[in-house]
Amino acid sequence: MRRRTFMGAAGAAAVTLALSGAALAQEAVKIGLILPMTGPFASTGRQIEAAAKLYMQQHGDTVAGKKIQLILKDDTGVADVTKRLAQELIVNDKIAVMAGFGLTPLALAPAPLATQAKVPQVVMAAATATITEASPYIVRTSFTLPQATVPMAEWAAKNDIKKVVTLVSDYGPGIDAEKAFTSAFTAKGGQVENLRVPLANPDFSPFLQKVADAKPDALFVFVPSGIGAQFMKQFVERGLDKSGIKLIGPGDVTDDDILNGMGDVALGAITTHHYSAAHDSPENKSFVEAFKKANNGMRPNFMAVGGYDGMHLIYEGLKKTNGQGGQALIDAMKGMSWTSPRGPVSIDPQTRDIVQNIYVRKVERKDGELYNVEFATIPNVKDPVKAAKSN
Which domains, ranges and CATH numbers included, belong to the chain? Predict the structure, then answer.
């Protein structure tokens, strides 16, 4: 009898321990970070992972009394893999948030899962304007291509550029950039010819020959982060660096992560973008210093700031909801504002896109290194595509 009583007590204790263990497990808030860590877009994954880890190192791994657990998955830049990983993270790991998403197809693939599971999806990189319309649970801390591109068209029109050839990667963001630039530039009386280059294994040479033959005042270029060096190499091989054709575009082509490796050919390139490692603010100086220190001297780029601000948005949202995810967390994120290393930012409560300054920059040599040096600011830019829809 005593033995049976003891066994009953021991069993009850085991159940209690199991339940308390489950309760402790539920106290953890898991963030699934899905990024291309291998393949042609690995620089994007490397930058965002480093920024997310830096944010946690600086701000601790506990929010609202709950432990933050980061689970990193490599989608290799393939959308089907992104979707499968997102499903596994939602079902098996019970994540509260999924984040990262290095390219547009990778951000769109898990959008239906975000909606079904009511799991907020924080897009830290992908830049096609329509992404946030794919699910009410998507919020973005990167940028949209039209947001960076319309200011470039306006700058070009004001600076005696009359004829432009656009050369863009043939997928969502490239098409966004082409359309936004063409529409804004022709509205100012400019002439545009459009060229599109394949996203996979791009060979720019035949397209650059067409540019040389067209003799425009400027070549507008959009290629994804990490591909700029390959473009610049072929730009020089075709002799376009000595042709008098100005190189302009959104800031992806003069990405901070690879800018020094491009050499003098990049000097003088004019771009419009939301972040430069040379941005002159105390917040950015401390961010760049800490990032370099934590990553063997690697310079942060615009992908890194998207990751860093994405973690800030998640942390501050969880503080507001006392650690609750789902709809409450998305609602908490809408309208949030803060001072980022890139400058003042906010989340548009209607579109869940980031509102931010866009800077006009020129590649210059500074302290022996190449930087995108800002010389003009367009403040508080919303995504122009959605702004036009709401008018």
Answer: 2-18+27-143+282-352 (3.40.50.2300), 147-273+358-383 (3.40.50.2300)
